Task: structure prediction
Amino acid sequence: MNGRTVVVGYGDAALDVLRHLPLNSRPSAVVVLDVDEVALTGALANGAEVVRGDGRDLCVLQRAGTPFAARVVVAVGDDRDGLLVTAAARSLNRTAIITVAVREPANQELFSRLGADDVFVHARSA
Result:
């Protein structure tokens, strides 16, 4: 495991989560995984490495370095997709801290049961 953070989905929710990480846990490197070229361009401009692809795909998560990441941030636009990403990320990395931004408060417990360590309701969607 290294100090790398893999961010699945790069929008407002991901930026909020990254801003709220404690200073002592700031990642040494950030890899952003998204299907949206505009989001990836923004991530590159902010100094992140990028991988284009679907975070629900185990192969794409592996390519982004999920098995060796210290932290995985799941901030996709749909909670159902987020559940799949969370379960897939946990299956690839049992020790990473998985932080999830959810859209529906009622889904917090389900995300925790699937392996998320920290679950936040994204303020703009609450």
Remarks:
- Strands lie at 4-8, 29-34, 49-52, 71-74, 97-102, 118-121.
